[in-house]
C-alpha cells in the first residue's frame, strides 16, 4: 500500500520548485498606495479649501452687516468687537472653556465605555436584549434636557449633573452603533473561528470587536458632538462655571460680543473633539479609513 | 512508481480507518414560507489518507455537506461521525477552507494566516516559520502585508488555503478553494495540492465545480445530483497518486472518468 513515507520519497523532486517559479509571476512589489505625509497634506488642502471659502464669505457678510450698521450692534456685534472681547477676557473665557471641556470629555468617555459594554451585553445575551433594548429605545424619547433640573436637585451645582447629562445624551448613539457593528459580523467568520476551536473571548477580541469598529467609530463621532450639548445644557440649568453659565450671564447683560465669543468657543470644543475622534479612527482602523476616506473630508 | 500504479489500480484504500462516516444524512432548511431539502439520504465514508472530490451542480448541497461534517450546522437527520465520534458541535481538529475566503479585512496576508495559530494557541515561532513556507509555496511572497481588499480573488483564496493548512490538520475540508483562480494558477494549485496531500498524508475532501479538477485531484470522485442533493455515483479511476499535468490528462483512465462525470452532470452543466 501507499504509505506516507513511500510518497514522500516519491515526490522529493520536481513539482515544488517548478510551481514556486511559475507562481512567482505575480510577486512584483504590490502597490500598497501608502499615503505619504505630503500626500495627506495635499488631500487635506484639496478637501478643505471649499468649506474655508464659504466660511470666509460668511465672515465677510457678518463683517459687512456690522460695518454698515444694518443691524444694531447690541444684536450683532462686529467681528472686531468679538475678537477684542476674546482677547481681553481670555483668562476668564479659557477657564470656563476648560470646565466645559472637562465635563464633555468625561461624559463622552463614560458614555463610550458604558455604551460599548451595554452593546456587548445586548449582543451576547438574548435575555438582556429582550428586556433591555426596548427600554433603551424608549428612554431615548424622554427629552433629556427636561431631566437637567432634576439632576441639579439631586446632585447640586457641581460637575456631576453636567457629566451625567452629557452621558445620557451621548449614550444612545454609542449603543446603537456598537450593537449594529457587533451584529454585522459575517457569520462565516464566526464559523471559521469555531473550526479553530477559539473561545468566545478570543473570537470577540480578534474578530467581532475589530469588525464592529467602523460602525462604532461613526457612533462615537455623533456622540462626542452630543456630549458638548449635554454639558452646556447642564450648565444652563444650574452652574457657576462653564461656557453655558457665561452664555447666560452675557445674555442677561445684553453683552453681544461676549455672547458671540462664547458661542464660538463652544463650537470649537465640538470641532476639536470631533477631529480627535476622527484621528483615533484613522489610527485604530487604517484598513477602513484608507478605503472610504475621511468623513469630514470625503464630502468634497 | 510502477508498484504504486498497480496498488492504486487493484487495491483501493481498503484497510485504513474511516475518518468521516456519513450515513443516511438528510438536511432540511426550514423557513417560514418554505422548506429546502439540501441533502437527501446521503451516505459517504472517507478513509484515512483518501482524497475525495465532490462534484455537483450549484445548490445541490455540497457546502452544506462539508459544514455538517465540520459540525457547523446543527439540525440534521442521520449519522455524521468524525474520527469515530458523533459530530455534535464545531470540530476543531480539522482545516476548513471556505468557499468565500472568509478573511479578516483588517489583517494583512501573513497575519490572516497566523490567525489560525493565535486562535489555537500554537507555538508562535513554529507557526511563523510554517506561514512563511506556505506563503512561498502559494506564490504570495511580496504580499505578506497586503490587506485582503488589495488582493485579487484568487490570491485571497490562496491565503485562505494557507490558513487552513497552517496547523497541519489531519482532515482538510475544502469548499471550492480554487474557484476564483485563473486557469493557469488553478493548474499550479492543483499540482501543489496533490503534492501536499501525498507528502502529508492528510485526508482531504474537496468540493469543486470543475470536472478536470475533480478527476485530477481525487482518489475518489463523488458525483451529486441537483437539489435535493443525492450521491448519484462514486468513481475510482485508479490513477496513480502522483498526478502530473503532462501525463495524467492524457491517461485513458482520466479521460474516461471525466467523460462519465460530464455525462452524469448533464450536458447543461459542464463549466470549464
Ligand atoms: N443556512 C441556510 N438556510 C437556508 N437554506 C440554506 C442554508 N444553507 C444552504 N441552504 C440551501 O441549501 C441548498 C444547498 O446549498 P449549498 O450551499 O450546500 O449548495 P452548494 O452545492 O454548495 O452550491 P454551490 O456550488 O453554488 O456553492 C441551497 O438550495 C440553499 O439555498
Ligand atoms: Mg457551495
Automatic annotation (TrEMBL), chain A:
What residues form the membrane-spanning segments? 47-65, 105-124, 136-157, 163-182, 216-238, 258-277
The record, for Pfam families, names: BPD_transp_1
Where does the record say this protein resides?
Cell membrane
Q: Where is this region: Disordered?
A: 1-33
Q: How does it sit in the membrane?
A: Multi-pass membrane protein
Q: Which ranges are annotated Low complexity under compositional bias?
A: 17-28
Q: What is its main location?
A: membrane
Q: Where is the ABC transmembrane type-1 domain?
A: 97-277
Keyword list (alphabetical) reads: Cell membrane, Membrane, Transmembrane, Transmembrane helix, Transport
Renumbered to this chain, the Basic and acidic residues biased-composition regions fall at 1-11
UniProt lists the family membership as follows: Belongs to the binding-protein-dependent transport system permease family.
Q: What is this protein called?
A: ABC transporter permease
Q: Name the species this protein comes from.
A: Promicromonospora umidemergens
TrEMBL record, chain B:
What the entry lists under PROSITE patterns is as follows: ABC_TRANSPORTER_1, ABC_TRANSPORTER_2
- The UniProt record lists the ABC transporter domain at 20-251
Q: Name one GO molecular function term.
A: ATP binding
Keywords on record: ATP-binding, Nucleotide-binding, Transport
Q: Does the keyword Zinc apply?
A: no
Superkingdom is Bacteria
Q: Does the keyword Transport apply?
A: yes
InterPro entries annotated for this entry?
Answer: AAA+_ATPase, ABC_transporter-like_ATP-bd, ABC_transporter-like_CS, ABC_transporter_ATP-bind, P-loop_NTPase
Q: What is this protein called?
A: ABC transporter ATP-binding protein
Amino acid at each position: 500500500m501507499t504509505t506516507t513515507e513511500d510518497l514522500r520519497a516519491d515526490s522529493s523532486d520536481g513539482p515544488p520548485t517548478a510551481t514556486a517559479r511559475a507562481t512567482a509571476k505575480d510577486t512584483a512589489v504590490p502597490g500598497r498606495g501608502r499615503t505619504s505625509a505630503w500626500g495627506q497634506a495635499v488631500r487635506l488642502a484639496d478637501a478643505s479649501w471649499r468649506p474655508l471659502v464659504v466660511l470666509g464669505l460668511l465672515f465677510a457678510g457678518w463683517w459687512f452687516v456690522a460695518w454698515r450698521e444694518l443691524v444694531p450692534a447690541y444684536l450683532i456685534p462686529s467681528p472686531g468687537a468679538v475678537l477684542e472681547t476674546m482677547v481681553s477676557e481670555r483668562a476668564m473665557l479659557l477657564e470656563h472653556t476648560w470646565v466645559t471641556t472637562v465635563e464633555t470629555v468625561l461624559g463622552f468617555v463614560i458614555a463610550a465605555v458604558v455604551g460599548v459594554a451595554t452593546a456587548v451585553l445586548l449582543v451576547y445575551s438574548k435575555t438582556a436584549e429582550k428586556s433591555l433594548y426596548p427600554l433603551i429605545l424608549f428612554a431615548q424619547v424622554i427629552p433629556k434636557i427636561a431631566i437637567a433640573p432634576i439632576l441639579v436637585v439631586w446632585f447640586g451645582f457641581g460637575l456631576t449633573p453636567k457629566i451625567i447629562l452629557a452621558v445620557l445624551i451621548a449614550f444612545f448613539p454609542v449603543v446603537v452603533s456598537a450593537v449594529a457593528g457587533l451584529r454585522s459580523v459575517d457569520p462565516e467568520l464566526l464559523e471559521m473561528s469555531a473550526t479553530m476551536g477559539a473561545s468566545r473571548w478570543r473570537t470577540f477580541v480578534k474578530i467581532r470587536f475589530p469588525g464592529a469598529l467602523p460602525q462604532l467609530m461613526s457612533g462615537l463621532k455623533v456622540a462626542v458632538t452630543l456630549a458638548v450639548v449635554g454639558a452646556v445644557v447642564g450648565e444652563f440649568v444650574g452652574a457657576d462655571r462653564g461656557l453655558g453659565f457665561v452664555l447666560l450671564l452675557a445674555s442677561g447683560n445684553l453683552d453681544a460680543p461676549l455672547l458671540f465669543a462664547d458661542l464660538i468657543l463652544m463650537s470649537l470644543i465640538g470641532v476639536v473633539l470631533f477631529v480627535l475622534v476622527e484621528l483615533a479612527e484613522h489610527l485604530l482602523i487604517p484598513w477602513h479609513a484608507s478605503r472610504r476616506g475621511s468623513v469630514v473630508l470625503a464630502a468634497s | 512508481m510502477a508498484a504504486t500504479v498497480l496498488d492504486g489500480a487493484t487495491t483501493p484504500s481498503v484497510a485504513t480507518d474511516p475518518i468521516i462516516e456519513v450515513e443516511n444524512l438528510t438536511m432540511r432548511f426550514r423557513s417560514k414560507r418554505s422548506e429546502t431539502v439540501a441533502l437527501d439520504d446521503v451516505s459517504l465514508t472517507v478513509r484515512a489518507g483518501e482524497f475525495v472530490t465532490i462534484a455537483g451542480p450549484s445548490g445541490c448541497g455540497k457546502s452544506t455537506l462539508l459544514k455538517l461534517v465540520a459540525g457547523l450546522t446543527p439540525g440534521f437527520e442521520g449519522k455524521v461521525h468524525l474520527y469515530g465520534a458523533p459530530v455534535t458541535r464545531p470540530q476543531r481538529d480539522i482545516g476548513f477552507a471556505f468557499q468565500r475566503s472568509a478573511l479578516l479585512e483588517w489583517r494583512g496576508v501573513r497575519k490572516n494566516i497566523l490567525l489560525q495559530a493565535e486562535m489555537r494557541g500554537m507555538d508562535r515561532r513554529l507557526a511563523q516559520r510554517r506561514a512563511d513556507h506556505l506563503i512561498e509555496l502559494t506564490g504570495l511572497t511580496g504580499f505578506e502585508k497586503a490587506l485582503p481588499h488589495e488582493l485579487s480573488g484568487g490570491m485571497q483564496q490562496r491565503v485562505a488555503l494557507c490558513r487552513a493548512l497552517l496547523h497541519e490538520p489531519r482532515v482538510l475540508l475544502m469548499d471550492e478553494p480554487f474557484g476564483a483562480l485563473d486557469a493557469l494558477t488553478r493548474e499550479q494549485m492543483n499540482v501543489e495540492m496533490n503534492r501536499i496531500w501525498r507528502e502529508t498524508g492528510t485526508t482531504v475532501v474537496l468540493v469543486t465545480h470543475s470536472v478536470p479538477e475533480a478527476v485530477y485531484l481525487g482518489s475518489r470522485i463523488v458525483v451529486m445530483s441537483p437539489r435535493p442533493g443525492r450521491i448519484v455515483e462514486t468513481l475510482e479511476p485508479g490513477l496513480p497518486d502522483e498526478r502530473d499535468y503532462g501525463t495524467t490528462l492524457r491517461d485513458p483512465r482520466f479521460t474516461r472518468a471525466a467523460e462519465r462525470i460530464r455525462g452524469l452532470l448533464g450536458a447543461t452543466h459542464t463549466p470549464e
